[in-house]
Design brief:
BirA Bifunctional Protein, domain 2, alpha+beta, about 40% helix, Rossmann fold, homodimer, about 450 residues, 2 domains, elongated
Chain lengths: ~450, ~450
């Protein structure tokens, strides 16, 4: 509170020369007034509510961390993509670009005293210093959902169910597919054929949607892979569809393995959760992060207009990287901005107006005391209620009630009040009735 | 998502030398695991819910802003108290230390298209580079509640009602008093007696609780005030108590004025809101900010153990400072950290455990499909339900259910299942019953 409590004078020297800077938010940063926020809050309720019902618990983490913990996970390159700086105490710090290192640290210290699994979610702001574009901001929110301590395919399946549940609740399941793979499949094959530069191969495979098949083959060959291997790789990454349908094809090329058996079990469980229709096998997804160890998933717009909505997978070695005990982990993350774009396209973004249950209006200043008390009674029942703060005439109070989308207006006037009555106006129909105070309150409580 | 999608390898060069840095959050920053967050979420629900019921609407603002907008309001001194830095684009920016400049900017652009008043709240993280101490962190949350567009005392009274409603809902009303004044009272008197250095006088008055009466008189005299004026000032700032009780005393010294008449109206309204018992007149509160124009309030711990909980007041000139139309405004802000300390002292901080409605356990791997489907049915009804992700033995599943505070466990075993039955265990009493599936579900839905 110190800044507020010190007597510091308003400084007008900045007013004129910097006016054009001062009144704009920074590039890539958003601000939301009440109506925009009402729409967003409905989405946030879903993003939090679905994992909640699966027993995931909310956690909250610092927005600034030592830069080292991100270098540790992602290498020095991360610095260029972060809002990092040296703080006034000389510490090299950064606004967090992702939550995983912090959450891994929290698990490392919490896991000693706990029964596994630990199931956590967070919904926090992240910051990345990147060029803003459609669906990508420098400041955004991200839901992270993670299960720690279970190496079992059950945990993978549950996370897919959470992700699919969110898509369904947002009205996006017709438009989005969750692509599923196991990074040991392609990786294992590349090991098997003794590929020289796996990293380069992965980078090329990741370009699948951007280059032609011939271009891809040429690029793959240039890494030293034989013509047969290139053909096989191209066959593998073109396998896409229902897991049960397409898994035999994978097995016919790669043989059975832990990875294919686990995929088969996953497919069965996805049916139990009744979400197979939003899932598909896709050996071509190459989530860049080296720390994924087996199961990976990535959600794609079926029309291909936008980049991946979200991604995740199993990262069994990350907690130990941060000094914790060896702890299997599986998780995914969804950013808020791309969701809004897809929901708007799908027509499921709710532009619904603000909710107000009742406005208590007065015909006369002397009635304001009664309006305040009546409003308090309704608020005690959880209603959203406003009174006139401007001493407006009745007609303008009604106009304001309409602007805030009030469902009801109770009008308090001296003559009626002396008979212990008020006028209840239904703002949808315009119908007005003279009722006792209790009748009016009951009406508002019953239908809001 | 770019950072995640690029193949960047885990970099172990940071592991050893920096281990002691890496695994600690920064000084003055907090992190909250699930149980701590559950306690906090109950408080957040109150902090948001009370203003919501008065029709205040949530907004959300950027966490980083051009540093100029804070200099504009608070002068260059602000820089030393902020997490400010030059971003990668060469912009002088800062993590926001308060919300007012941003909100004023938002109002300035939103107010053209709107009916007044605009009633907004935000609950956001703020950052201040100050020495951390009890109840003061470098990163904290703050609730801000503001009414724009109404110059009326009704708006002031409503904000006091919101603040008092929050204190009551948090169980703090016995421990906290909202001290109320009008800055024109002392200010007007100092103008009247032609005080040379009003700012110095205010700073001295602000030390009221830290120095003796004699020390204060001596310091006040040293600013050039006459002995009579010093005596009068000391009388004025010692006036404390019920507004109606003490206002006549103020009037006997200062005469009637707009400020005393407004205070009298405020006192009347506070009674309508039924919160006079938490309010008192206190001419000694000197909120430092020059931008307050009349009504000011500050909430104090009645035991005097902690600094002010929150403060606020009327600031009719700030929106125009940010280029908006002249817009009266009144608001207050509450930080989260001091609330937790006071609630712990008052015994109202809820250390309640996590909520889980039901765990669906299995006696046998083959039953897991049924457990998953049963869990889905309960989740569709909004229940918080977990299944076993670890293939634990039944006894250990029950132990986990107890650790997550599950109210019920449904045990699915092959023999019972073949008769379309399950065992329902009440985790409070340990009682177990064999029931049909629908009966078990009904029981869980009814009593969670």
């Amino acid at each position: 509170m110190d800044i507020l409590q010190r007597g510091i004078s308003i400084n007008d020297k900045y007013l004129n020369p910097l006016q054009h800077h001062v009144y704009q938010p920074l590039k890539g940063f958003r601000e939301f007034t009440d109506e925009a926020m009402a729409s967003r809050n409905r989405v946030i309720e879903i993003l939090k509510g679905v994992p909640q019902r699966f027993g995931f618990r909310e956690i909250d983490i610092p927005s600034i961390e030592p830069l080292e913990i991100f270098k540790l996970k992602s290498g020095d390159e991360i610095v260029q993509q972060t809002f990092s700086f040296v703080d006034k105490g000389g510490r090299e710090v950064t606004l967090i670009p992702e939550t995983t290192p912090t959450v891994a640290r929290l698990v490392a210290s919490a896991s000693k005293a706990r029964q596994m699994p630990i199931k956590w979610y967070s919904f926090t702001k992240l910051w990345r210093y990147e060029e803003p574009q459609s669906g990508r901001f420098r400041e955004f929110y991200q839901l992270n959902v993670d299960t720690f301590g279970s190496p079992d395919v059950r945990a993978d399946a549950e996370l897919i169910a959470v992700a699919a549940g969110i898509l369904k609740a947002l009205g996006l399941s017709p438009d989005v597919r969750i692509h599923i793979s196991d990074r040991r499949l392609i990786d294992g094959y590349l090991d098997h054929v003794k590929a020289q530069d796996k990293r380069a191969v992965m980078r090329i495979l990741d370009k699948r949607d951007k280059i032609s098949s011939d271009e891809m083959k040429e690029m793959l060959s240039s890494t030293g892979l034989s013509r047969d291997v290139v053909e096989t790789l191209c066959s593998l990454i073109s396998i896409k569809g229902g897991i049960d349908d397409r898994l035999p094809e994978v097995e016919s090329i790669l043989g059975q393995s832990d990875a294919t058996r686990r995929m088969s079990a996953l497919s069965e469980m996805i049916e139990w959760y009744e979400v197979p229709e939003v899932c598909e096998l896709d050996l071509g997804i190459v989530r860049g992060l080296d720390y994924y160890t087996s199961f990976i998933m990535e959600a794609h717009d079926i029309r291909g207009e936008y980049r991946a909505l979200f991604g995740g997978g199993r990262y069994d070695e990350l907690v130990s990287l941060f000094g914790g005990p060896s702890t299997p982990a599986v998780g995914f993350a969804i950013g808020d901005a791309i969701l809004e774009i897809l929901m708007r396209r799908a027509g499921t973004w709710d532009q619904g107006p603000l909710r107000t249950d009742c406005m208590v209006a007065v015909t006369d200043d002397s009635m304001y005391m009664h309006a305040v008390r009546l409003a308090s009674r309704l608020r005690e029942k959880g209603m959203i209620v406003e009174t006139d703060l401007m001493r407006k005439k009745l007609a303008r109070q009604l106009s304001y009630a309409s602007a805030i989308n009030a469902r009801w207006v109770i009008i308090v006037g001296p003559r009626e009040w002396s008979e212990k009555k008020v006028t209840l106006r239904n703002m949808k129909t315009g119908e007005q009735r003279s009722l006792t105070i209790d009748e009016a309150i009951d009406n508002v409580l019953k239908d809001t």
